[in-house]
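Q: Given only this backbone (261 positions), what sequence would you predict?
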């Protein structure tokens, strides 16, 4: 415990002295794995036990320790599979038990409980979302925006075979090199996604300033957004991605109209 807390303090102090971005810590990835029905090794890990009931108390105790060591820093949870089916066939909420222990809840499982974001916000915590590399403009832009997600996790920036993507599992938006970041179409989609979010937030802000209600327009857009969702939080196959430009244009027109009064 002493070494754990001291390492957290050392890293945080170094980050602040060198003007790093804000650090948000988590003691274990996807802690809902505590409720998997049988502990088993992860298929792609030789030694690590990837799930089992030990995770629950470990995660809770570690979150408390992080808050104690560096109370000014946030603690984060990735909520993957909020539900687990028990031996009776009943679904149990196994991820929500950690909401009181963290400051940020980030999920890729909003489809399991559409009310999760409201539960997190009601508890006074920040609600984020994450997903893989499929359809990043849609998922990180309008899809997350439809759930009022206030931040996101990128899974994963450069997890894969680096420049050789001809084989293996590649979860990559871009590649780093000694000279520059090598961009990809997915990386550009990510940038477009955050531009879409800026249009959403700007439209809301302008409407507030003008004393106007923009929610009917947002509900109209978000209905189309949810209708276009395919598997794994991605854009539905066969649908025209130009619709995202149309949604952005609708927001732009609303911003201009509200600005003119």
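A: Predicted residues:
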């Amino acid at each position: 415990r002493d070494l754990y807390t001291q390492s957290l303090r050392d890293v945080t102090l170094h980050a602040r002295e060198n003007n790093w971005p804000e650090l948000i810590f988590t003691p274990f990835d996807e802690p809902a794995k505590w409720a998997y029905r049988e502990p088993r090794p992860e298929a792609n890990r030789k030694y690590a036990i990837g799930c089992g009931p030990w995770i629950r108390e470990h995660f809770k105790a570690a979150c408390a320790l992080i808050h104690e060591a560096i109370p000014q820093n946030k603690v984060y949870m990735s909520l993957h599979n909020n539900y687990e089916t028990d031996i009776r066939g009943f679904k149990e909420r196994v991820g929500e038990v950690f909401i009181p222990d963290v400051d940020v809840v980030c999920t890729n499982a909003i489809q399991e409980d559409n009310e999760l974001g409201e539960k997190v916000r009601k508890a006074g915590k920040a609600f984020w979302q994450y997903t893989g590399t499929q359809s990043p403009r849609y998922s990180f832009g309008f899809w997350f925006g439809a759930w009022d997600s206030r931040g996101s996790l990128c899974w994963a920036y450069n997890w894969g075979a680096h420049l050789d993507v001809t084989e293996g599992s590649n979860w990559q938006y871009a590649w780093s090199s000694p000279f520059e970041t090598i961009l990809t179409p997915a990386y550009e989609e990510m940038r477009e996604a955050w531009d879409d979010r800026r249009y959403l937030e700007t439209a809301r802000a302008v409407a507030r300033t003008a004393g106007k209600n923009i929610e009917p327009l947002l509900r109209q857009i978000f209905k189309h957004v949810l209708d276009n969702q395919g598997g794994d939080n991605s854009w539905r196959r066969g649908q025209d991605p130009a619709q995202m430009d149309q949604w952005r244009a609708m927001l732009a027109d609303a911003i201009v109209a509200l600005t003119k009064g």
